[in-house]
Amino acid sequence: MLNCAVLGATGYTGAELTRLLLSHPDVRITHLTTRQEKPIPLSEVLPSVPRGVQLQITPYDFEDLRKKADMVFLCLPHTEAMTTGDLFLQAGKVVIDLSADFRLKDATLYPKWYGIDHAFPARLRQAVYGLCEVNRKKIRKAELISNPGCYPTGPSLALIPLLEKKLIKHDPVIINAASGVSGAGKKLVTSTQFCEVDGNYNAYKVNKHQHIPEIEQNLSLAAGREVAITFIPHLLPVYRGILATIYVEPAKKTVTEDEVRRALVTAYGKDPFVRVKPAGQFPSLKDVRNTNFCDIGVSLDARTGRLVIITAIDNLLKGASGQAVQNMNIRFGFPEGAGLI
Amino acid sequence: MLNCAVLGATGYTGAELTRLLLSHPDVRITHLTTRQEKPIPLSEVLPSVPRGVQLQITPYDFEDLRKKADMVFLCLPHTEAMTTGDLFLQAGKVVIDLSADFRLKDATLYPKWYGIDHAFPARLRQAVYGLCEVNRKKIRKAELISNPGCYPTGPSLALIPLLEKKLIKHDPVIINAASGVSGAGKKLVTSTQFCEVDGNYNAYKVNKHQHIPEIEQNLSLAAGREVAITFIPHLLPVYRGILATIYVEPAKKTVTEDEVRRALVTAYGKDPFVRVKPAGQFPSLKDVRNTNFCDIGVSLDARTGRLVIITAIDNLLKGASGQAVQNMNIRFGFPEGAGLI
Amino acid sequence: MLNCAVLGATGYTGAELTRLLLSHPDVRITHLTTRQEKPIPLSEVLPSVPRGVQLQITPYDFEDLRKKADMVFLCLPHTEAMTTGDLFLQAGKVVIDLSADFRLKDATLYPKWYGIDHAFPARLRQAVYGLCEVNRKKIRKAELISNPGCYPTGPSLALIPLLEKKLIKHDPVIINAASGVSGAGKKLVTSTQFCEVDGNYNAYKVNKHQHIPEIEQNLSLAAGREVAITFIPHLLPVYRGILATIYVEPAKKTVTEDEVRRALVTAYGKDPFVRVKPAGQFPSLKDVRNTNFCDIGVSLDARTGRLVIITAIDNLLKGASGQAVQNMNIRFGFPEGAGLI
Amino acid sequence: MLNCAVLGATGYTGAELTRLLLSHPDVRITHLTTRQEKPIPLSEVLPSVPRGVQLQITPYDFEDLRKKADMVFLCLPHTEAMTTGDLFLQAGKVVIDLSADFRLKDATLYPKWYGIDHAFPARLRQAVYGLCEVNRKKIRKAELISNPGCYPTGPSLALIPLLEKKLIKHDPVIINAASGVSGAGKKLVTSTQFCEVDGNYNAYKVNKHQHIPEIEQNLSLAAGREVAITFIPHLLPVYRGILATIYVEPAKKTVTEDEVRRALVTAYGKDPFVRVKPAGQFPSLKDVRNTNFCDIGVSLDARTGRLVIITAIDNLLKGASGQAVQNMNIRFGFPEGAGLI
To answer: Is the pLDDT assigned to residue D200 strictly greater than 90?
Structure first.
């Protein structure tokens, strides 16, 4: 049994991660922590917890964690994960970080997109970007796994094989994405009040979202050259799920829709959590919610020659906690779908 | 008082139109009709009808309509409006048609996009496309006004002035649109069942939506050359509203965001129902629902040089019945906002 | 033209009230106030405001209000309305208070249910309870109108005539009510976050809601004896609307369902905003949302002899701002439906 | 491994049941059937099915079922289950029926509440009512288990121990219940269209719901005398979940809230799926959705002496498929929570 700790278990991703770990056959939860000063029964943030489970979410205690946990999941706010992650790495623990603190390789991007200087730039080089299906080999040996952002996961999975095989142009890449409200976390802000969201839909952080450099890093690596994307996120009146509608162009006029689809099937045909839709079918949030799937659909418009690729994930699972468990499974040699199927 | 009839008053647009006409100071409703065989009290389809109003929705009776109505609104299914519209035009009535039957100038597009041959191609030339702010002069003298489709309204209002002033390229024009469920009408289909829609979001009719040629016709006219667009509609889990996120490119590198915004303000600054958002602000469905407004926001991304334009309308008002009343107001010399503000 | 001021125009009821007053033919808005220090454009809290309207919501200025306003609407938090109301009454203004501060006749109930001592108990005697259809005569001459609470409005309208005519027993009276989220106001609390409310439904303030004494006061007056009710409010995942399902018993075995319905029709048959449903039909939120209607349905169960009465209103209209305008109309001799139909 | 068949796997309960059985460690699915003529891939009705699973939903074939299945779950429409159930019982199979066809002991109730004569009244005596926590012993030996209705489950679990211990009066029993839309099944009707349900809430089948005799049968048995209830169901704009707010009276004035709560804890303290809330806390749909829990809360109002009991379940799990699996677990000696936790 692997001894796991979840740091920051009271938020949406922390609670979802705890739910998954509870049903994982190879895992023992040693700690669930909170920044609050008093212990909280797990059942308060995770009402579905089985009756026998008496876990508490307790104040953070580094020494106790160091003694009992083999690995830690960080579900901490951006910038806080930086320091905590470094500490546990120094203590020889495997760290899977669900924040953005170790996702970007170029430390100079942090001041621009996150408004902070990175405290441990050397860790950025060490970190393995945990996009499971793409980086599986590196993940197996990683000490620090940086779990991908919710928005980057779907578009990166869809576009990386197409850029690598030079089936699409590296420019333009236009990503129109829409997310459920749980992506915004639990902090109290007007924009996530029921009366603001219900019946509403709008773009936000237009051309300014912090996931832009992360997606660009992924696509640039695949394209072998710098890729600059247009990315517009929208807020949906739903609890969970992200659907991205992506507009790109085939590399040549001879590229067919079927060729694109087959490239994706080749890339992911054996992976348990990526499904490529047959011709004429497209992803829906309802098909992926409460699952760790990433669904991908493809349409090449004969009229305009433009390629539309649509991806869907559950932002709390494949876009956060599900992928984190998948990373743990890969890292520790468990079946990739353990605790997830 | 203008004597108006609404043909097809039991659907969402028919009921919304009736609601508007009831509060219009210059209008008397002479008929509300249905294809059903028995009369239906208006209050059954429009529960908000004031207590004194005793209107019935009655079976269609051409002779009686001909005698008492000065003008007719057609809220009929596509293809049915074609014949009925012709009949009332022959009888010397003004016709405002909310279907697509008179929207396209090129009759050969009907077989391709609507699966039918057009029965009265000559009427297509006669018809004035009722995009109020753009065609106001022609609408004043029109006998047959073809009310714009719900999806085309916002993007056309936003892009026409920019194409006319050559501020944007005519290609690419990518429109990512999302609509509330009322846009699908009242027919019973699985895809509009609550359990299918709630918590869901997906693209549909990918690269195949029948509003594509209508938008292209509008933009081609403005550009002075043929425009081919990419248009992907999505279904939102909301009752009403359409938000379109549009990706285009400035005509030259020297074009500024402010220049684009000012062009829109110049075009619509005095219009009661088009609002151009200030820099950094963008439309939301909640700002336009239950109104006849079309809101437009603009962002030019310095990193990619790409222009994002966002429009929002209420699909049942500015996207259907509201614009129909606005067209009537223009046609008959009433204040443009009568019954709408 | 009547010069009206709205104190506290940034909340849901304040904004809704402003919307109604803007379309009222006999009213001029002199002030919209806020406790914030800087002016706010009205369009920020009321996006549907017509383009020409340039109103600002400005910091409260008693002297200016005193000079220009004939009457004031108080959309202030409980306890704050007490003092402000007294001040404007001293200045000779008509006050319509939408808070609970003047609703209860018995000052000793305030410490128990609202946690405060009442600062001006004499004003409680002066205040006319603004349940329009019941107290119309008194409202015509009132200086201080206390607008009813959202939950009390429907059940009071339904039960008062039945108690007065002794058609039902005064005990038991069980009211199971469910409200949309706008009833909770705009303050940031976890329980009104989208992710808490969406897909959820639950009872709250079980046996503790502050509207209990208000309903009991109304029913006791009608019954001519003290009535103690059971009242359980629930939170619905909807924006607006309250539906109350009420369980009572006929006074005698000989009372028929039809007799009960006719008593309600007799009481409200000529009122513009109360609709009694025919046998076998019952109210729905969708029938009353965005209207000032109160719908009432009746079912007498032959098996158990128990009477079920269902009422529905829009909590922001008949349950708050709509009824406030109706009160103003009655007080100042305007048509009762002015600005509301 | 137990060989199980699901008859009627395309509906909401059938799909949910299949999902549970797929993850059950002791079960092999032999058949998923449909009344349609062509096979349907399971993934079409259950998008979350793991990638390796290649199950098809196939046309009903009695002979093949008889050979391969040890037991059958009937997710068939009312009246159809009657005949099919009898057939499999004759063939010596264990039958768990999720319809109402074997729930009522008194055959004369079927014409009144279901509009049909019962074809196999003898089977009614044979059937064990599968309210797991109450009938566990009988379920262990049952050949025909009649799975409880969605509405009856929560109120029956809450009231049976209180009636048995004579803590509450058998009259009045008033149940105000609210259900998510999945309870209405997949058939296409106007009342479950998104635009009808979204933002709406209303009572339906007032005093006429077919679950009334089922609840009365359960409560009468517990009370040792005939119980007549008032039951009003409402439709919530949510996908899944039922919350029932129950109004009863303590048997004596000396009964305390704590006594009532302790009676429930005594009855269910060791059961994995019934949770009694501590004083001052009440069930929410969000606490039980996607779980097999039944949560129960209690409040005794000191002012009126009335007792309010609130229950919540997920209608598709504890209210249908979850309880069906729990019944299977009890019947075949598997751990009661297998496949459910």
So the answer is: yes
- Any idea of the CA torsion for A95, A100, A106, A112, to the nearest 10 degrees? -150
Q: Which residues of A touch B (CB under 8 A)?
A: 172, 174, 176, 178, 180, 196, 199-204, 206-207, 228-230, 232, 234, 236-241, 243, 245, 247, 282-286, 289, 297, 299, 301, 303-304, 306, 308, 310, 312
Q: How far is A182 from chain C (nearest CA, A)?
A: 6
Is D245 within 8 Å of C303 when comparing Cβ atoms? Answer: no
Mapped onto helix, strand or coil, the DSSP state of residue A339 is coil
Is residue D75 annotated as part of the catalytic site, yes or no?
no
Q: Which residues of D touch A293 (CB under 8 A)?
A: 48
Q: Does position D79 have pLDDT exceeding 90, yes or no?
A: no
Chain B / chain C CB contacts < 8 angstroms: 38
Handedness of CA B274, B280, B284, B287 (dihedral sign): negative
Across the interface, which of B192, B237, B238 has its CB nearest the CB of D193? B192
What pTM did the predictor assign? 0.97
CA distances from D108 to C316, D82, D111, D213 (A): 48, 15, 6, 11
d(CA C23, CA B208): 43
d(CA B84, CA B19): 23
C140–chain D nearest CA distance, Å: 35
Q: What are phi and psi of A218, to 5 degrees?
A: -65, -45
* Residues of chain A positioned with their CB less than 8 A from the CB of D198: 199
Residue-range domains of chain B with CATH: 2-147+320-332 (3.40.50.720), 151-313 (3.30.360.10)
Indicate whether C79 pLDDT > 90.
Answer: no
The answer to whether the Cβ–Cβ distance between D194 and B197 falls below 8 Å is: yes
Q: A13: helix, coil or strand?
A: helix
What percent of chain B is predicted at pLDDT more than 70? 100
Which residues of chain A does B236 touch, with a Cβ-Cβ cutoff of 8 Å? Answer: 201, 236-237
Residue B127 zone, left/alpha/beta (φ > 0; ψ -120 to 50; rest): beta
Helix, strand counts (H, E) of chain C: 13, 15
Name the residue type at position A45.
V
Task: Kindly state the average pLDDT of the residues C259-285.
Answer: 97
Tokens 């809101």 sit on residue: B295
The closest alpha carbon to D309, from D254, D250, D248, belongs to D248
Q: What amino acid positions of C are annotated as catalytic residues?
A: 150
User: In the block, which residue shows the tokens 């040890």?
Assistant: D70
pLDDT bucket at D57, cuts 50 / 70 / 90: very high
Active site residues of A: 150
* Count of beta carbons in the 10 Å neighbourhood of residue B169: 17
CA distances from B176 to A246, A285, C221, D238 (A): 10, 17, 59, 28
Does B47 sit within 8 Å of C287, measured CB to CB?
Answer: yes
A211-248 pLDDT tens trace? 999 999 999 999 999 999 999 999 999 999 999 999 99
Is the ipTM higher than 0.85? The answer is yes
pLDDT reading at A277 higher than 90: yes
- Tell me if D193 and B193 make a contact (CB, 8 A cut-off): yes
Q: Which residues in B lie closer than 8 A to residue A241 (C-beta atoms)?
A: 199, 201
A280, C154, C292 from C133: Cα distances, Å: 59, 11, 12
**B173-215 pLDDT per residue, tens:** 999 999 999 999 999 999 999 999 999 999 999 999 999 999 9
Closest Cα to residue A231, out of A205, A262, A252, A256? Answer: A205
Residue D109: how many CB atoms within 10 A of its CB? 19
